[in-house]
Design brief:
- The chain is mainly beta and about 220 residues long.
- The chain has a single domain (about 5-215), classed as Sandwich (Jelly Rolls), CATH 2.60.120.
- Helices cover about 0% and strands about 45% of the residues.
- It contains 1 helix and 17 strands.
- The chain has one helix at about 180, and strands at about 5, 15, 35, 40-45, 50-60, 65-75, 85-90, 110-115, 120-125, 130-140, 150-160, 160-165, 170-175, 185-195, 200-210, 215, 220.
- It has a 6-stranded antiparallel β-sheet, with no helix packed on it. Strands 5-14-7-8-9-10 form a 6-stranded antiparallel β-sheet, with no helix packed on it.
Amino acid sequence: MTALHDDFAGEAGSINGRIAPTGQRWLDPNDRCYLDGNGRLIANVPDGEAGHYMYAQIALDAPVTSMRADISWVGTSTEVSQNGAVTLIAGNAPARAGTPPNQGIFFQNIHAVFGIWATSINMWNGTAPEAPDPFFRIYPGGRLEPDGRIYHIGMAVIGQLLVIDLPNGERFYAADSRIPAYSGSNLIYQCYNTTAVNLRPRIEEVWAETAPVAFGTGVGVELPY
């Protein structure tokens, strides 16, 4: 059973208050999340402007077990440091860190950054990531293509284990004792870019599940990729 699904169909404009086809209400306290009118969620930031942050928040009725998205990039990125990304965030409470509080991500959360050059999983507590990071991977084949092609990303939560689907097709596993305490029913789908100002990460479609994730057992939700 899919708890959340949205393909962002509809007219261009703010996502704040949008009702997903599965019934959840999107929130955007920063007014940075916009539908582009072509079935994508994008950041409402002009080309060439740094500080590209977009937080589209949604709440489920039970802790998330799997977050997934189809994403794409357009623009320019010429080196690994220009790792514009889509971030999947799961938090145990809707409270946000930062000043003012509604400008940042959840106070405690799993923060999975899927970039055009690399993927990194962080655990945030307050206004900074905690060390050590559970996972980091630069793609062996180099940068993904910023030409609008669609890539799939995802993370599944199984107790203290994360199953991580990278956009280059790789799957990895990361274990961390903080995962059960930091994940929860509060989600953010984020576009993030501060170093390659003309690179635009875009979210094409999203899913989330609350049923247990299964691996060939026939019980729970099978990961689709």
